Amino acid sequence: MKALVYHGPGKRSWENVPDPDLIDTTDAIVRVDAVTICGTDLHILGGDVPEVTEGRILGHEAVGTIVEAGAAVTGVHIGDRVLISCISSCARCAYCRAGRYGQCLGGGGWILGHLIDGTQAEYVRVPFADTSTYKLPEAVSDEAALLLADILPTSYEVGVLNGAVRPGDSVAVVGTGPIGLAAIATAKLLSPSQIIAIDKAPARLQAAKDFGADLTLEPGDACAEQVIAATDALGADVVIEAVGTPATFELCTRLVRPGGHVANVGVHGAPATLHLESLWIKDVTITTGLVDTSSTPTLLRMLAAGQFDAGAFITHRFGLDEMREAYDVFSRPADTGALKVALLRH
Questions:
Q1: What is the per-residue pLDDT across 240-262, written as a single tens digit (0 to 9) for each?
Q2: Which distant-in-sequence residues (6+ apart) come within 8 Å of 49 by Cβ?
Q3: How far is residue 68's CA from residue 73's CA, in Å, rounded to a whole number?
Q4: What is the reported pLDDT for 141?
Q5: CB 340 within 8 A of CB 62
C-alpha cells in the first residue's frame, strides 16, 4: 500500500510500504476512506515531537471501513463505516476508567502517527478497536466526521471545558487556525457574551468572524489594551491558546482577567516564560492537556442532529494519492487559505 512516511525533520515521502497486519486480538484493520492533516503533523515535521522516529507513518485522523477484525473485537464488524479516534483507549487502566483516555497506561493514548503507524495511508491497524473507533450514522458524511477525530474534541475539551467557559463569559482565542476556529465554534455552544479572535493573518480573522467571533484583533503592541477595553477593563474570563509558541502563550497570560483561566491547546516545541512576577497575585488558573476524546459521542450526536456544521472547516479536497500536494497547501495557509484539507479515496 501507499503511505506518508516521516524520514526525520523536514522530510516526508508518499511511498510503498507493507500492508498492516493484525497484531493483537483487539485490533482492527481499517481501509482509509477519508483522512486529513493536522497542525501536529507539521510540528512533527518541524522536529517538535522527538518521540516520532524515522520511518513512522504519520496521521491520527481518519474515517474508514473495517476490513479485518481480531477475534476479541465485538463492538464493530467487517464492513462498518467508522471514525478512527486520534486517541486509543485500552478501557482498563486507571486513567481510561476515569475517562482520561489521553493518559492511557495500557498501550493507548495518542499513539497513531506518533508511537505506531498512523492513518495517512491506504490502510491502518487500529488497536483497541472496540473503544477507539465509533460507528458512524448514515446521516454523517465522511468529511464532517473527520473533524470529530481530533480538532473538535480537542478544542472543546482542552480549550472550552478545561478553560471552564460559562454562559456570559468573555472568551479570547489566540490563533484562529483550525483548532482556534473549532474553539470558537464549540465555545458558542456555552453562550459566552463575546468571543474575541486574535491572529496575524487577515484571512484567518475573516474565517473567525464567519465561525462566530464578535471581535477580531491582530497580536500587536496594542492587543492587550484592546482586549481589556472590550471586557470592562478587566481582561477576558477565558483565554484559549491555539498556536503553540512562547509569544502566543505569554500573550494569553496578559489577556486574562484576575480569577480567569488560560487554557493551553497549542503544541509547544520550545520553552515559554511564565511571568509569575505579575501572575502570582491574579488568581489565574492555567491548564494544559492532551485530548481524551471523551466528548466524541456527544459531539457525534450533535453533528448528526445538525447542531453545527463540521464540514465548514474543509476548504480543500484531494485524492488520497495527492498527499504531497495536500501537505503543500496545508502548510502554507497564509498563501492558500487552507483551514482543513480532506483526502478522499477515489
A1: 999 999 999 999 999 999 999 99
A2: 40, 43, 114, 267, 269
A3: 10
A4: 93
A5: no
Whole-model pTM over 0.85: yes
What is the grid cell recorded at 335?
498563501
3 state SS of 306:
coil
Q: Amino acid letter at 58?
A: L
Q: For 192, phi and psi rounded to 5 degrees? A: -70, 160
At 295 the pLDDT is: 97
Tens of pLDDT, residues 127-184: 999 999 999 999 899 999 999 999 999 999 999 999 999 999 999 999 999 999 999 9
> Dihedral, CA atoms, 233, 237, 242, 248, nearest 10 degrees?
40
What does pLDDT average to over the chain? 96
Largest Cα–Cα separation, the chain: 61
Closest of 38, 39, 65, 49 to residue 9, by C-alpha: 49
| Grid cell listed for 217 | 484583533
DSSP E strands: which ranges in 7-149?
A: 12-16, 28-35, 62-69, 81-84, 123-126, 133-135
Q: At what angle do helices 178-187 and 202-210 cross, to 10 degrees?
A: 20
In whole angstroms, what separates CA 136 from the centre of its chain?
A: 19
pLDDT tens-digit series, residues 101-119:
999 999 999 999 999 999 9
Contacts of residue 159, Cβ cutoff 8 Å, sequence gap at least 6: 173, 179, 183, 186, 187, 240, 242, 263, 265
- Among residues of the chain, what percentage have pLDDT more than 70? 100
> Torsion-angle region of residue 342: left (phi > 0), alpha (psi -120 to 50) or beta?
beta
**Contacts (Cβ under 8 Å, ≥6 apart) of 164:** 238, 261, 285
CA 257 to chain CA centroid, Å, is 26
> Residue 288 has what pLDDT?
97
